[in-house]
Amino acid sequence: MKTGSTSGSAKAASWPPGRRAGRGTRAPSTPGRRPRCFGRAVEERPGARADMRIARITYEILRPVPIGELEVTTSVLRSGRGTEVVEAALAPAGGAPVMLARALRIRVAEEPVPAVVPAAVLPPPGEVGVTPFFPVPWETGYHSSVETRFTEGAFVEAGPGTCWMRMRVPLVAGEEVRPLDRVLVAADSGNGISAVMDFGRFVFVNGDLTVHLHRHPVGEWVCVEARTSVDAAGIGLADSRLHDEKGPIGRGAQSLFVAGR
């Protein structure tokens, strides 16, 4: 699956010329086309079974994603009656992959089984005010593509954070937002929501992202309840509980590279 050429966005401006952050394949699009979400590529690939859905997906961010024509390819690594493992690769045309993802899909039960999940415990987004993003020197980017409402913490406060998020623009221009799009976009924000380091003094970027889902979200809002831990060796972990307005839906985890600027 190919996408057309893209034009640079303000979000890309923080990376070297011709590059953009790895999350660009998951974050909402600004004007112009963006690479398709790996989750969508796995779920909607030719021949994909309609009776399965993604229960876990892990992204490996190999290098910054170039701005230009990109190609997403998928392959089935294991196929069984109840589960399958699918790998997706993102690469510039004719080039080496810049990002990989491996997804576990599980067959949906033909007959419902007893649901055992906690009830909703967080204040709904309608009861929380809009929280501003931390100051950035551009007008359009990730911060303007997602509405955020914190019930705990804030982008400008160090420590744990709990934030409702709603996409303002489609992941792919001109296409309807899928429930899986909403949760993967939100889950990639765990380290920013629960930042424990000073943005001005340290970098703490994730080299991967793993999302486990026992169900996909219902409605426009996804909540990320995140905590970050950092070892003196410069290795961190952002651990996130994921919710929608009905209750918990899964977890996200990001391995962090932490260093002084």
Q: Roughly how much helix do the residues carry, as a percent range?
A: under 10%
What series of H and E elements makes up the topology?
EHEEEEEHEEHHEEEEE
At the first level of CATH, the class is: Mainly Beta
- Please identify the structural class as seen in this structure: mainly beta
Quaternary assembly: single chain
The coarse silhouette is: globular
Distance, first to last CA: 37 Å
Low-confidence stretches: 1-36
Strand content: 35-45%
**CATH homologous superfamily caption:** Acyl-CoA thioesterase, double hotdog domain
Radius of gyration, whole Å:
18 Å
Number of DSSP-assigned strands: 13
Mean pLDDT: 84
CATH domain topology:
Porin
The profile of the biggest β sheet is: 11 strands, antiparallel
How would you explain this protein's 3D organization?
By secondary structure, the protein is mainly beta. It is 9% helix and 39% strand. The protein is built from four helices and 13 strands. Strands 2, 4, 5, 6, 7, 8, 9, 10, 11, 12 and 13 form an eleven-stranded antiparallel β-sheet that branches. A two-stranded antiparallel sheet has the order 1-3. The chain is globular, with a radius of gyration of 18 Å.
